[in-house]
Design goal:
Number of strands: 5
Order of helices and strands: EHHEEEHEH
Shape: globular
Distance between the termini: 46 Å
Oligomer: single chain
Number of helices: 4
Strand order of the largest sheet: 1-2-3-4-5
CATH superfamily: Gcn5-related N-acetyltransferase (GNAT)
Strand content: 25-35%
Number of domains: 1
Mean pLDDT: 95
Radius of gyration: 15 Å
Structural class: alpha+beta
CATH class: Alpha Beta
CATH architecture: 3-Layer(aba) Sandwich
């Protein structure tokens, strides 16, 4: 079984939706359908600093997704790349799919001249943290949110 990672395409919408929904469900979040449409359109819009990749099993079935956003930083002269969402179907976990999706974003970040790739995960996400601890460094920050 081979996994291929490539940028999202318009025809991927039907397979992307269920994976995005599963990711949101993991984080106990529900978004309206309009947000799905807006997010997917932004991931494909060359004017947006957002990008999406998908992993396909045997070039047919989508088994993973990743979203990235480029932004400026007060601490760096170059762009930073925020890996916002990463989801791999249960059937593919532990097989290198997550790492391949992270590598695709890292390659894009290098191509676009970013000097940092960073992401967050919930402290309870032990499965993902095993991968993240292997491929990156934990910066030790704690995230706070203030409702607006």
């Amino acid at each position: 079984m081979t996994v291929t990672v490539r940028p999202l395409e318009p025809s991927d919408r039907a397979q992307w939706g269920p994976l995005w929904e599963a990711y949101l469900r993991f984080y106990e979040t529900v978004l309206p359908e309009q947000q799905y449409e807006l997010t997917f359109s932004r991931l494909l819009d060359p004017a947006e600093p957002m990008y999406g990749f998908a992993a396909f099993e045997d070039d047919r079935k989508m088994v993973g997704i990743v979203h990235a956003i480029f932004h400026r930083s007060c601490w760096l002269p170059d762009w930073s790349c925020y890996l916002q969402d990463l989801y791999v179907h249960m059937s593919q976990r532990g097989k290198g799919t997550g790492e391949a999706l992270i590598d695709a974003v890292a390659d894009l970040a290098r191509q676009k001249g970013a000097s940092r790739l960073h992401w967050l995960t919930h402290e309870s996400n032990a499965t993902a943290r095993r991968l993240y601890d292997r491929v990156a460094q934990n910066a030790g920050f704690i995230q706070y949110r203030k409702p607006l």
